[in-house]
Specification:
It is a single chain. The protein has a single domain, classed as CDP-alcohol phosphotransferase transmembrane (TM) domain (Four Helix Bundle (Hemerythrin (Met), subunit A), Up-down Bundle), CATH 1.20.120.1760. A two-stranded antiparallel ribbon has the order 1-2. Helix 2 runs antiparallel to helix 3, helix 3 runs antiparallel to helix 4 and helix 4 packs antiparallel against helix 5. The protein contains 10 helices and 2 strands. It is mainly α.
Length: 234
């Protein structure tokens, strides 16, 4: 045990915190603490971003990359599936379960491909599983007014397909993007201890941002086509 502990670096401890958030989210949703569970997934996403930032600034351990994927599979693969299953009750049980398992398998494939491909510094191939976990958690936190079993099934199927697709997604590292996003994340998480209605509102805003990110390759492609057309007219 001493050997593996000496192997771990600072980013790895943040990664372990990410995984713990995911497993605790699964446990507490089974105990009936519904809205705390998706909030923990958002906290796990913050940890996932922080450990990546630390890893780029400091030396990573030999097991850091594999450890990160295992943590992501727990927090953004398994946890959203279990949480959503509990949220949904017995409504359309078999169809919903198929969609949830489809997402879970696609998440595994996405992470396995990520670990074996040559990494790009500015983009991902396929939707990151972290983004999938954030999208699902923020949707669940919007409250009953938006909750619909057909929407849930559609969300899981679409996210699963996008994760294993060849579509390119940009990495959000621009401070002009990260700062407002960090504020919204913090407000969504902190608002829970103030008033759940504030959480619903902030989660709705976060959901809208995730929709924009999910369709961002299409928006960027249309912008490129538009710019190419304008240049050809000159």
């Amino acid at each position: 045990m001493d050997q593996i502990l000496h192997t771990l670096k600072l980013p790895d401890f943040v990664t372990l915190f990410n995984a713990l958030c995911g497993i605790v989210a699964i446990i507490i949703v089974l105990k009936g603490f519904t809205y705390i569970a998706p909030l923990l997934i958002l906290i796990a996403a913050v940890a996932d971003g922080i450990d990546g930032h630390i890893a780029r600034r400091f030396k990573s351990s030999e097991i850091g990359g594999n450890l990160d994927s295992l943590a992501d599979m727990i927090s953004f693969g398994a946890a959203p599936v279990v949480i959503t299953y509990v949220f949904s009750g017995n409504e359309m049980h078999h169809i919903l379960l198929a969609a949830l398992l489809f997402y879970f398998v696609c998440g595994m494939l996405r992470l396995a491909r990520f670990n074996t491909m040559q990494l790009s510094p500015d983009s991902f191939r396929g939707l990151p599983i972290t983004a999938g976990g954030i999208a699902i958690s923020s949707y669940l936190l919007t409250g009953n007014i938006f909750f619909n079993i057909y929407s849930i099934i559609g969300i899981f199927l679409i996210l699963g397909i996008l994760m294993v697709s060849e579509i390119t997604y940009f990495k959000a590292r621009n401070k002009k993007i990260l700062l407002p996003l960090a504020i919204i994340f913090a407000a969504t998480i902190i608002s829970y201890v103030v008033n759940i209605q504030y959480t619903h509102f902030m989660a709705t805003l976060l959901s809208a941002i995730m929709v924009i990110y999910v369709i961002s390759p299409l928006l960027l492609k249309n912008n490129e086509v538009k710019n190419a057309g304008e240049q050809s007219n000159h």
